[in-house]
Amino acid sequence: MKIVKFTLICVSLIGIQFSARSQSLPVGTTAIEDYYRRLQLLGNVDTSVSFTIRPLYPGYINKNAYFPDNTEKGLDTGATWVSKNGLLRTALLPFNIQTQGNSNHPYGWNDGPMIPAKGFQAMVSIGFFAQYGPLSVQLRPEFVSAANQPFDTFDKNQYDVIFARYYDIYNNVDLPVRFGTQAYTKAYWGQSSIRLNYKGISAGVSTENLWWGPGIRNSLLMSNTAPGFPHFTLNTLKPINTPIGSFEGMMIGGNPKSSGFAPLVPDKTFFGTNLYVPKPTNWRYLSGVIITWQPKWVPGLFLGFDQAQQAYGKNLSGIGDYLPFFSTVNKTTAPDQPINKQDRISSMFMRWLWPQEHAEIYFEYGHYNNTLDLEQSLLNPNESRAYIFGLRKLLPFQQKPDENILVGVEVTQLQGTSITDDIQGKEWYVSQNVRQGYTNQGQELGAGIGPGGNLQSVEVSWVKGLKKLGLQIERYVHDNDFYYYAFQDSKDYSRHWVDLSVAFNGEWNYRNLVFNAKIQGIQSLDYQWGLTQPGDDIKFQHQRHQFNLQLQTGVTYRF
């Protein structure tokens, strides 16, 4: 009877004309997504939109999400059709092709269905959008193909005990170094969804990538490093105004997938035993919630909280397990291990927008499987913590009102604060309870720099409308938590794997086309934590450095 009533309500709603444009702007959309954020710095679009919950629904900002620049006139007339009664609306979504190539070894993140691989790979997507009354359908599949060439991985000359410690960590997180030994080809539903929309609220099923938090290079909980995963969603389409300010939010429940690949190719044995322990095949359930508040007393300030939980389907027994947002994580006899074989990650964040100064500052601070109560958390804030800090500012260029210099800095710190915790395997995204860790299809759901990683990034760019030419300098430290765990006996802490990189990138629009390109040189110091010859523990004597050149190109045609 309840189902019949719900169906009647949905049918009756179809006769109402809704103002909601639920067509989304996918996370990472070339040039356009960041253009909206830059417009906020200039005070030229709605400054109540937080940019901490994505994808965006820019129908509330601009009549056509893909032609935001008001200098692009007369280009957006051929792809949208609206019925005479105004109830049915259809649109072709942009055709996009992205390519990427690494000369020596895998590098990069925030690239959706693309995989960490050496050699050339390409991703293609196209789709359509249709809306009838409150019902909207967005179909935008993605196809990826990668050469997936062989490359040097964890060095075969490392001691067996070092390999054993490597597997201690990477048996508990689904992050294969190489996705098999053959060329890789896969199709995904991509940025697709089916939704019911009412005013500023939407509910439905989606496989879209999500981005939670204010970061630009990294996010602690949700990013587009991995492909999107199927999930139910209940979310706002625009800020909801209240007497104390505006709110945005999203609640999801979904099913991340495993990659099916082992940590290394080929696997390593230790005293005749294969070190790789295959991961359980039971399905995983991930639930999450994010809320962002813009206090009306402080324009431009956004305060937020997000949280995600993971468990195997066999361990779910009630509504509290499917919606565990208000439950606590308690200690058991095993120190700092959550009950019910569940993992939890949460963070608080802030973004403060200063349109008068054409600037913003943001911060995210998170905990992973933190079992401390509020009092102990305040006394021990470094327990299982990670953080992101960043700022950006637009500076006028040659007194031209439509040209600026964009300066941005972002720091991400996932490395732990205790070698004791490192030895116990307490790393971000690594789990002994859900052994795929916080991943989907073999890549991180959160920060793409991975467990124990740190990143410092500086960007300086010239921007004009959708056009952008810039320089990016970064220092990326790979999994220091594993490093201290692996080399605890020899105390050889002289071989941190550090990538120093310089990149030149550009985005350029011409009529219906948007081009993007990037060339990046990466010098990997002590690649894969260096090389140790058997029987030789001399520090600094067997360092292994590798240079990698990465090229990215892409083109988007907007119908």
Give me the CATH architecture, please.
Beta Barrel
CATH class: Mainly Beta
Q: What is the name of the CATH superfamily?
A: Capsule assembly protein Wzi
Beta content: 35-45%
The general outline is globular
Multimer state = single chain
How many E strands?
28
Biggest sheet statistics: 18 strands, antiparallel, barrel
Contiguous uncertain segments of 5+ residues: 1-20, 330-339, 534-538
How far apart, in Å, are the first and last alpha carbons?
A: 45 Å
Mean pLDDT: 87
- Label the structural class: mainly beta
Overall radius of gyration: 24 Å
Number of domains: 1
Q: Determine the number of helices (DSSP H or I, runs of at least 4 residues).
A: 7
What percentage of residues falls in helices of 4 or more residues?
A: 10-25%
Please name the CATH topology. Answer: Porin
Summary of the model, kept short:
With 559 residues, the protein is mainly β. It has helices spanning 2-13, 32-42, 160-170, 319-322, 374-379, 419-423, 480-486, and strands spanning 53-54, 80-82, 88-102, 119-132, 135-139, 142-146, 184-188, 193-198, 201-206, 211-212, 231-236, 240-242, 245-254, 269-270, 273-274, 284-295, 301-312, 343-354, 359-368, 385-397, 400-413, 439-440, 443-444, 454-464, 467-477, 498-510, 513-525, 546-557. The chain has a single domain, classed as Beta Barrel (Porin).
